[in-house]
Amino acid sequence: MSTVQAETKTAMSKKTKMYYIHSAIGLAIMFLFGFLPPFDPITPLGMKFLGIFIGLCYLWSFVDMGWPILASFVAIISLGCMPITQIYTSAFANSTLMLCLFMMLVMMPLAESGVFDYVAAWVLKQKILQGHPWRLTVGLLLLTYVASVCQGGFPVMFMVFEITYKICDMCGMKRTHPWAGAIVTGAVAAQVLGTAIFPFSGLALFMLGVFSALEPFAWPFVGYMVFMVAMFVFIFFFYVLFMIILRVDMSKLKESDPSQFVKSLPPITAHQKKVAFLLAGYIITLIAFGIVSAINSDAAIVALCKSIGLVGVSWAFMCIMVIWRVNDKPAFGLGYMASRVPWDSVLIIAIGMSFGPAIASEETGISTWLYQLTAPVLAGHGQFVFMMLVCIITLVMTNFMNNTVVIMLMFSVVSAYVVPMGINIITLSAMMIVASQMAYLLPGSSFYAGLSHGQAMHVGRKNGFYWGAVMMVASGISMPIMYFVGNMLF
């Protein structure tokens, strides 16, 4: 055995050893931390949840993304934190997870056909983008945002992921390159901000109901939309600015010659053309159903689209993919579809759906503890500082708890201050909508954080944490500007 081979074998053995050591430490924290004496107001149940959460964060940081979630479910059950039936319903039997799962069951197998090689080559060939990586960056993020505004953000977001990976492959960049990680996190954030642009979106109506208890108000339709568009512009201005400041290397994107990529691609096959047609049909159908379902009407077509839903559309296209025969076999069998799904992403979304509400329940005492920590921080400040602190605390806390729970917790804290201080409730509500959606530092913090960190098998774990933190900072910096914009609009 050569010296180089011996060193490689030793290095690999050390890496494996550290993997097992980190795994043991994380599991020990997860299963044993809860037996420490609780401190007021944290209950024994709260200590168990804290231990599982800390252990999960440790394993995510040093080991892996997927299997620690399964271990956390085992810990939740074995430590008596939650019955297994409740995990089934909260983690796996919810509409949001089902929507994401069935979209991936359609999108991922179609992406494997190689059709995105040609889409990426077409994107790189556009003269407006050739030699301009920053235009390409903004274009991909803007594409996701516009599609999300049109109620078609999810499929386009997944498409942007695949285009990004193919562009990296074509330009000789690793998929773990910081640029790819920035696009993934940015695309998820663009999807969120696009969805929230209308005042009749779910979270906007929820905030309306919560804060109307203090002072009845109605969202000014145009003003709200202008505010949300401005929020998107400022957040992504700072996000891209940080990419420049952090010196993200785009030299290979700038120097790439798309003509060489096009020449190296074999002629597109008849099968790939059919796949491209099916993929385009799927995206267009999802967008159409999303737009029609958002219409407030009793028309039969609207009722039909609402009853079928986006999950129903995915089921229909899955049927088409199985019915389609190639060489007397299904073009895309159910087993093949399932094998292409990034199951780490599914598990991350599942833990976010179940863990956040559970850890913030009254039985754990954690929400009371956080209330005691945050209430004194907010007292004794003027309007501007008060609202900034509310938004920053909301942004940070959403990394650890469900965003709806955080909003309710913050409402209970700020309700005593809002009316006496004469704070603009509409501005505060609109800012909290965004603050509660931009927490991407930890994988389990929200559904969207799960989508972002779920791409770790491509862009790596470090990229998820790194760009999640950058997105949070960009959002935090945008809040003072949006305070003045909101007060002008509302």
Chain-wise SSE layout:
Layout: H1 3-32, H2 44-62, H3 67-78, H4 84-92, H5 95-111, H6 115-125, H7 133-149, H8 153-170, H9 178-195, H10 202-211, H11 221-245, H12 251-255, H13 258-264, H14 270-293, H15 300-323, E1 325-326, E2 329-330, H16 334-340, H17 343-359, H18 366-378, H19 383-397, H20 403-421, H21 425-435, H22 447-453, H23 456-459, H24 461-489
Antiparallel strand pairs: 1-2
Helix pairs in contact: 1-2, 2-3, 3-17, 4-17, 5-8, 5-15, 5-16, 6-8, 6-13, 7-8, 7-9, 8-9, 9-11, 9-22, 9-24, 10-21, 11-24, 14-15, 17-22, 18-20, 19-20, 19-21, 19-24, 21-24
Concise description?
The termini are far apart. The radius of gyration is 24 Å and the shape is globular.
What does this structure look like?
The protein has 490 residues and is mainly α. The protein folds into three domains: 3-81, no CATH class; 95-340, no CATH class; 343-489, no CATH class. Helix content is 75%, strand content 1%. The protein has 24 helices and two strands. Strands 1-2 form a two-stranded antiparallel ribbon. The termini are far apart. The model has no long low-confidence stretch (mean pLDDT 85).
Widest β-sheet, arrangement of strands: 1-2
Q: What is the terminal separation in angstroms?
A: 74 Å
- Percent range for β-strand residues: under 5%
Tally the helices.
24
Low-confidence stretches: none
C-alpha-based Rg, rounded: 24 Å
Topology as a string of helices (H) and strands (E):
HHHHHHHHHHHHHHHEEHHHHHHHHH
Mean pLDDT: 85
Features:
3 domains; mainly alpha; two-stranded antiparallel ribbon; about 500 residues; 24 helices; single chain
